[in-house]
Design brief:
This protein has about 80 residues and is mostly helical. It is built from five helices and no strands. It is about 65% helix and about 0% strand. The N and C termini lie far apart (about 55 Å).
Length: about 80
């Protein structure tokens, strides 16, 4: 019984140390959207893009035109998106 509970504890420690910290993975664009109080769906609707595209923009960056549009919607600088 002790050996089994030791394995469970080791697995818990291993999984806790190997999972990425989600707070560290949030992009500047996502932080800007959240600071503006918008959900992904609301922001996509205002920017006139689909949700999947806005999600990829938050991960990978936006074109100049979309960065301009999002900076107006989120009331922030364009550097959050480029």
């Amino acid at each position: 019984m002790l050996a089994n509970s030791g394995c469970v504890e080791l697995r818990a420690v291993a999984s806790a140390t190997t999972k990425p910290n989600m707070a560290l993975m949030v992009s500047k664009a996502t932080k800007a959207r959240l600071a503006a109080g918008l959900t992904l769906e609301e922001a996509a609707k205002r920017a006139r893009v689909c949700v999947a595209y806005l999600r990829s923009v938050e991960r990978e960056g936006a074109s100049f035109v979309l960065a301009t549009r999002l900076s107006r919607i989120y009331n922030c600088g364009m550097d959050e998106f480029l």
